[in-house]
Amino acid sequence: MENTSFTIGHSTQAVDDFVKLLKKHKIKYLIDIRSTPYSKFASQFNSENLKLALKTYDIIYGYMGNELGARYKDPSLLFPDGRVDFKKVRSTDNFKKGIERVVQGAVQGFRIALMCSEKDPFECHRFCLVSYALAEQGLKVLHILQDGSLIANEALEDRLLDKYRQDYNQVSLLEPLKPRMAFLEESYVEHNNRIGYLFEEEEDYK
Q: For the stretch 62-80, what's the b/e string if a residue is b when 16 or more beta carbons lie within 10 angstroms of its beta carbon?
């Protein structure tokens, strides 16, 4: 599947079950995009442990949390309240280089899955930050769910609109109907404000 990239969340499941999901979708390269590649609640997904486990299944582990992670302290990449601003992150050279590497691999036909911790991609930066950029580059993004099914990035965007823009597609006599992307951009920002990282927060690594 050229021009296609996958994402997956490890949650707290057993590594064997996690690998079954990767094998089901013929993933050969797992790219860890957690800013810190460790888990408080699932040590089997700590970077070193996971790399060794995947090697026995002939799956290659790579780390790109420095490029595609979601945790930043640089004031220039934050909203006024201190939350990470995904739009600003996407404009950095470091992030763009990370996206370019993923795009090049997908275009060449490599079966790549980007991994973070959240079970639900909707609640994770792999959708709101990273998949946004991949789709913008023309990639089809499919999210692997824990039951083994796939959900397309476009379906998660529909969920965004349902959550934040219930007025989407409603005709107003007072203002022109905005295109879908305008509503989506507003929804992405609102979602970013809900799930984006705050340095003061103590939570599992993402």
A: ebbbebbbbbbeeeebbbe
Q: What does the block give as tokens for 94?
A: 């470091």
Model pLDDT for residues 56-67, shown as the tens digit of each residue? 999 999 999 999
Contact 191, 164 (CB under 8 A): yes
Domain at 69, CATH number: 3.90.190
The answer to whether residue 85 is domain-embedded is yes
In a domain, residue 95? The reply is yes
Question: What phi-psi label fits residue 10: left (phi over 0), alpha (psi between -120 and 50 degrees) or beta?
Answer: alpha
What's residue 179's pLDDT?
79
CA distance 192 to 20: 31
- 0.85 exceeded by pTM: yes
Tokens standing for residue 196: 């984006």
Strand partners, 151: 143
Per-residue pLDDT, 173: 46
Q: What is the residue-wise DSSP string for 29-42?
A: EEEE--SS---SS-
Tell me if 206 is assigned to some domain: no
Domain count, the chain: 1
Q: How confident is the model at residue 176, as a pLDDT?
A: 53
Query: What pLDDT does residue 205 have?
Result: 41
Domain limits at 72?
4-195
pLDDT below 50 — which residues of the chain? 173-174, 202-206
